[in-house]
Amino acid sequence: MPITKQTIAIIGAGGNMGSAIAKGIAGGNYRLLLFDRDPDQLESLIEKIQQDHPNADVVPIDCAHECSWEADIIILAVPHQAEKEIADKIRDVATQKIVISIANPVEEDFSKLTTTSDTSAAEELQEWLPHSKVIKAFNTTFAADFQQPIIDGKQADAFIAGNEKEALQSVIELVETVGFNPIIAGDLSVSGTLERMQLLLIQLMIRNNDDWLAPWNVTEWAPELSGDSTGLAGWKILRN
Amino acid sequence: MYQQLKESLQEHVSLTDEQWELCKNNFRPKRMLKRQFLLQEGDVCRQLTFVEKGALYSYSVDSKGNQHVLRFAFDGWWIADLQSFFTDNPSTLNIEVLEDSELLVLDRKNHEKLLEEIPAYERYHRIIVENAYVALQKRVENALGLTAEEKYARLIKDNPEFMNRVPLNLVASYLGMSPETLSRVRGNFSG
């Protein structure tokens, strides 16, 4: 990890996923700028972060544009349908920055995705922010997974997709800070697969009235991904 | 947000509107606050930074913990550790923000892309590096050959803005003298 501190903006930091990510990376060498439409939500989050990490450099910012201007990496922790409006607001200060798309563009009834089969939330965001480096990450891990990235001695995997090697490396460091095992799934066009994978898992969680602690674990079943080639292939969802 | 950069380019070369757009879209706008670090000793400097507005300075820290200021950068100037940038070795310098600043950061890959795609940018960059070399040589000559009085006189002639925007202890460090010596020299000047 670089010595010089990177600044991360989390847009929608008061939400479930936004606050899980903020808490997950607060122990790293990062300055965190938190923005939420509803700033009241940030107070208790910041208090919690400072309790767990007394040296955390974390500040609330009351404007998405200002927040993104100061950041090196911007995490959009908002539903996909809100991303276009935010993209319009931050476009001029997001040039050449890493913008992380965490969204799974699901219909309200979770029956299907809102995007067509030839694209994805991440690719649409890349179209709206043509000069930014959009990376798909944190969409295959539920908020509950951040609390417990290791279940029964096995580490949760977190998939990442993107087009730029250096940008992927920076996101790998973020994912490792949270405690997940990062797996590069491919370039940004793989995002659609990652979003559909998670749609399936969301549907299973709802059907089984589950506790939403259910990270993917591929390396356990496909050890060649972690460099140990015993020839097994497959995947599973880790359960408590 | 790009006014100073545009002026700096136009001062030395001419770009078509299309080239300017391409150039601008490769810079990362970054706002930084006083006392934040753009670069810290031990990291490789992988970027060239243009100051749209504000002030920064680069310095090294010796084994006794003393700070040695190498240079400053204000509105319209570039700053980087070129030694680290060109050789890919970890930097021996820190670059710290002196006043809240609006910066335009150009990552190495994008810099190389612009060098390749826009000949006028390559020419601009050559002129900037030539100027930096000339300034550096002057600075070494001054440091080696001038008295404290002469150093100060040269500074207020060549860079009068330093005295308004930089704390005196940093000016003293930049000139390679103690704050007390600088104070005495300034007293002699005004007296």
TrEMBL record, chain A:
Pfam families in alphabetical order: F420_oxidored
Annotated InterPro entries: NAD(P)-bd_dom_sf (IPR036291), P5C_Rdtase_cat_N (IPR028939), STEAP_metalloreductase (IPR051267)
Superkingdom, natural source: Bacteria
Domain Pyrroline-5-carboxylate reductase catalytic N-terminal positions: 7-105
GO molecular function, one term: oxidoreductase activity
Keywords linked to the UniProt accession: Oxidoreductase
PANTHER family in the record: DUDULIN-RELATED
Protein name: NADP oxidoreductase
UniProtKB/TrEMBL annotation, chain B:
Domain of life according to the entry: Bacteria
CDD domains: CAP_ED
Stretches assigned to the Cyclic nucleotide-binding domain: 36-115
SUPFAM superfamilies xref list: cAMP-binding domain-like
UniProt xrefs under Gene3D superfamilies: Jelly Rolls
Listed name of the protein: Cyclic nucleotide-binding protein
Source species: Fodinibius salipaludis
